[in-house]
Amino acid sequence: MPASDIEWTAMDAPILIDGQTHFDADHARVVTNPAHHKEVVGRRAVGTGGYAHAAVEAATSAYERWSALSAAERAQMMLAAAVAIEAGNGDRARLLTREHGKPLSEAAHDVGGAPKILRYYAGLADRFDTPDVTEDDLGRIVRLLRPMGPTAVIAPWNAPVYLSYLMIAPALLAGNTIVIKPPSYTPLAVTDTLLELDRHLPSGVINVVPGSGPEVGAALVRHPSVRNIRFTGSTETGKQLMRDAADSVKNIGLELGGNDPAVILEGSTINDQLISEFVRGVYAGTGQICYNIKRIYVHRSMYEDFVDQFTEAVDQIVIGDGLSSDVTMGPLNNEAQFKFVDALVDRTRSSGATVATLGRRHDPTTWDDGWFIQPSVVTGLAQGAELVECEQFGPVIPIIPFNEESEAIAFANQSEFGLAASVWDDDVDHAFDIARQIEAGTVFINVHRVGASDVSMEFGGFKQSGLGRGHGWVAVEENSELQVLAHRPGWVEATGHH
Ligand code: NAD
Q1: Which of 3, 257, 320, 450 is the least crowded, having the fewest Cβ atoms under 10 Å away?
Q2: What's the N-to-C CA distance of the chain in angstroms?
Q3: What is the largest distance, in Å, between two alpha-carbon atoms of the chain?
């Protein structure tokens, strides 16, 4: 393994293995600013299968010591790391805006996830350390949680810090050691937090290998010593991971894609509050959030009113560099996403739908220097159209009328995805009744946007949106083996003569 650890700065993402950084400046890849293609924000080390293997070895050696600590001891270190990470988050939010494109307030929420999530899971230490003991005439049964082993964490580019910590923190609390592959488009801010985290943990507990998914990610997933895989990303990649993990029957958690429906029932009042919730729910992150609203179904009696008010509000969006305080929507993150969304909008228009292109360009003179796209609102589409069925992951939204509630429920459920959804009605009890009939891991009532699913609220998908659940206590259980210790003299005695 070459170890030329030269010339890297806080703007770069090195490899971290067993407390040592590695950065080969000659072979590093540049990370560019999606708001100004030609601006280099930093560089990421190019990890290889060899580095992935070395990182798993480090995580395997560190495992014995880390897993032998109590969760309370691990939590103390996680809390110390949270304080240190928080202190650097102002600069990191700016770095994240520059590598990702999202407005500074959204980037601050993303990097703020690291200390917040570490603290939340540190708070669950006592629960982890307290076994469940039952004693009766038959004997004693002790149920305890034990860590699984070296854990591979693979994260997407859209909310790199928040999503990485949702996977890392419960795994660490449970006593697992980590090798994480950060996303290739947005590796910088998250790696910077991980270097800080490493300073507060024993060496080898957290290892970082930036690099390509098919090379570094796949090497981690296939490695025989890795016992647990935590993945957030697309459904296509998730399927590949399941295949790769099958050979050694690894534990696997998948948070995958979504095509979230929002259903506005007849009893809803269309007012500024509701419209503003929808604008945020659809366009936050430039539409690149797993649980953005991706299809809107509106009762026919209020369809035109909703479309008019919503279109007017979307037209107020200001698109530009997320570092400008008056910008409300950044560019798409990368060229591939830009080309996909741009072509999807073109095909939708050619199919005969009405596409309203909205919003204001903050700086028309530099528009073509970034992966900018104006938000659009699409009407005149039927259920089954491409834009309604696919995960657009961009700022374009179809709005479809319905007549009966049963029809809206059927439309909402006609999808291979089932991540989140929302039901909107002034009668909240009625909204709950409808929500129960929707096939999605989370169904929000009268809200549907980032932050609405708190770290304490279980999250995950039905159908092809994922396997298992993140957030909350359940994520600790999903990173643990449940072990049962049983002493049953009463039972032996009762059955011994048979
Ligand atoms: P992606 O699947 O392309 O990549 C995710 C990660 O997997 C990246 O780090 C990538 O390098 C890695 N990877 C790619 N091929 C791999 C392989 N063969 N083996 C191992 N790793 C591999 O997804 P993306 O484009 O980065 O993210 C967008 C997608 O993520 C969307 O579909 C979105 O809905 C989904 N997402 C889901 C959630 C959730 O909580 N359910 C949250 C955020 C994003």
Answers
A1: 3
A2: 62
A3: 90
Q: Could you tell me which residues are beta bridge partners of residue 21?
A: 16
If one looks up domain 12-256+465-483 in CATH, what number appears?
3.40.605.10
pLDDT at site 5: 56
Measured in Å, residue 333 CA sits from the centre of ligand 1 at 14
What are the extents of the domains in the chain?
12-256+465-483, 260-445
C-beta 256 within 6 A of ligand 1: yes
pLDDT at residue 8 in the model: 77
Q: pTM here?
A: 0.97
Do domains 12-256+465-483 and 260-445 share one topology? The answer is no
For ligand 1, the distance from its centroid to the CA atom of residue 252, given in whole angstroms, is 14
Q: Is the pLDDT of residue 3 over 50?
A: no
Q: Is the pLDDT of residue 7 over 80?
A: no
Q: Is 401 in the pocket of ligand 1 (CB under 6 A)?
A: no
Average pLDDT over residues 20-37: 96
* % of the chain surpassing 90 pLDDT: 96
Q: Is the CB of 181 under 6 A from ligand 1?
A: yes
Instruction: Please say if the pLDDT value at position 2 is more than 70.
Output: no
Secondary structure of the chain in HEC code, one letter for each residue? CCCCECCCCCCCECEEECCEEEECHHHCEEEEECCEEEEEEEEECCCCHHHHHHHHHHHHHHHHHHHHCCHHHHHHHHHHHHHHHHHCHHHHHHHHHHHHCCCHHHHHHHHHHHHHHHHHHHCCHHHHHCCEEEEECCEEEEEEEEECCCEEEECCCCCHHHHHHHHHHHHHHCCCCEEEECCCCCCHHHHHHHHHHHHCCCCCCEEECCCCHHHHHHHHHHCCCCCEEEEECCHHHHHHHHHHHHCCCCEEEEECCCCEEEEECCCCCCCHHHHHHHHHHHHHHHHCCCCCEEEEEEEHHHHHHHHHHHHHHHCCCEECCCCCCCCCECCCCCHHHHHHHHHHHHHHHHCCCEEEECCEECCHHHHHHCCCCCCEEEECCCCCCHHHHCCCCCCEEEEEEECCHHHHHHHHHCCCEECEEEEECCCHHHHHHHHCCCCCCEEEECCCCCCCCCCCCCECCEECCEECCECHHHHHHHCEEEEEEEECHHHHHHHCCC
User: Is 390 among the catalytic positions?
Assistant: no
- Residues 349-369, mean pLDDT to the nearest whole number: 98
CATH number 3.90.1750.10 is the correct assignment for the domain at 260-445: no
315-337 pLDDT, tens digit each: 999 999 999 999 999 999 999 99
Catalytic residue among 57, 99, 290, 478: 290
Answer yes or no: is the C-beta of 233 below 6 A from any ligand 1 atom: yes
